[in-house]
Amino acid sequence: MRFTRYGGPEVLSVVEVARPEPSAGQLLVEVVVASLNPAENAIRLGMFASGPAGFPQGMGHDFAGVVAALGPGVRGFAVGDEVVGFAPGAAMADFAVVDAGSAAPKPAGLGFAPAAVVPAAGATAWATVAAVAPEPGETVFVSAASGGVGVLAGQLARLAGARVVGSTSSGHARRLRGLGIEPVEYGRGLETRVRELVPDGPDAFIDTFGRGNVDLAIRLGVSPDRINTITDHAAVQRYGVRAKGNGDALSPTIWAELLDLIAAGRLVVPIEAEYPLDEIARAYTDVATRHGFGKRVVRVRPDPS
Ligand SMILES: NC(=O)c1ccc[n+]([C@@H]2O[C@H](COP(=O)([O-])OP(=O)(O)OC[C@H]3O[C@@H](n4cnc5c(N)ncnc54)[C@H](OP(=O)(O)O)[C@@H]3O)[C@@H](O)[C@H]2O)c1
């Protein structure tokens, strides 16, 4: 999957390229499922570009697949291993090359789709929960609790023993409740509804949506060091709240912890939709709606196991 200029989803196209070769310390992985992340829309639009672009660029970050070849000096992996990995700008492909240190074994029997989202959305959720360190019996609020990061963060906070209240559309309330997260409808009147559910205010606040959620947390009396946002950089400057995210959890050890929770059925990864590679424009258009329950992914090939 490549693009040669910045723009909307229409700039993406599937092209035939030579199979990449793994260098020393790298794995060549046959990709089965690649995750779709909102930031990839922003990257493709050029919103993160700070200088002249090097085109063509690839797409995607996190994926799950099967090791097809090893570069010199790789230890701990073998051809045929099922793995997850993090390959910025290279995951949406038949084959991806990844540093062995940016890959983790996928538990046998775990589907490739839920596994593929672990290195980005999963790790980000892990970092947000670690940042606010919920204690058993505390109440944690999660904004956009039905989103890709939010739905995982809410469940991880529950696993830490907290009561979790999360904002959602009414259409996703029942599914959220089924995951142990108390739904509260976002939009006009949110603050009143939160105060009714949590009269003393939450102990911690995980913001995965921005747009006034950190201001709400401050008004609810949450201490800035118990507020984490992954989107509202202005609020970080304004209030000194925390901003832990994906870059703080790019660790195969953390990914392995999350994969084990998913394989054990203790952490559920809702998959909103799977798309074939040649429907990538529709996939990213759907991601850009910012509505859905859980994650959207691209299926490159059927699960081999
Ligand atoms: N800093 C980092 O390391 C990092 C890492 C990953 C992601 N991010 C960023 O974090 C954000 C969340 O990522 P994501 O993958 O979780 O996004 P996402 O899956 O696209 O989130 C969509 C969710 O937002 C909800 N939503 C829509 N309007 C809302 C509103 N007004 N109030 C509350 N929720 C609303 C939707 O709920 P309904 O469907 O119920 O309407 C939907 O479930 C993105 O901006 C992303 O770029 C940052």
Automatic annotation (TrEMBL):
Segments forming domain Enoyl reductase (ER): 7-298
Gene3D superfamilies on file: Medium-chain alcohol dehydrogenases, catalytic domain, NAD(P)-binding Rossmann-like Domain
Xref: InterPro entries: ADH-like_N, ER, GroES-like_sf, Lipid_raft_assoc_Zn_ADH, NAD(P)-bd_dom_sf
Domain of life: Bacteria
Residue ranges that the Swiss-Prot or TrEMBL entry lists as coiled coil: none
PANTHER family listed in its UniProt record: PROTEIN AST1-RELATED
Protein name per the record: NADP-dependent oxidoreductase
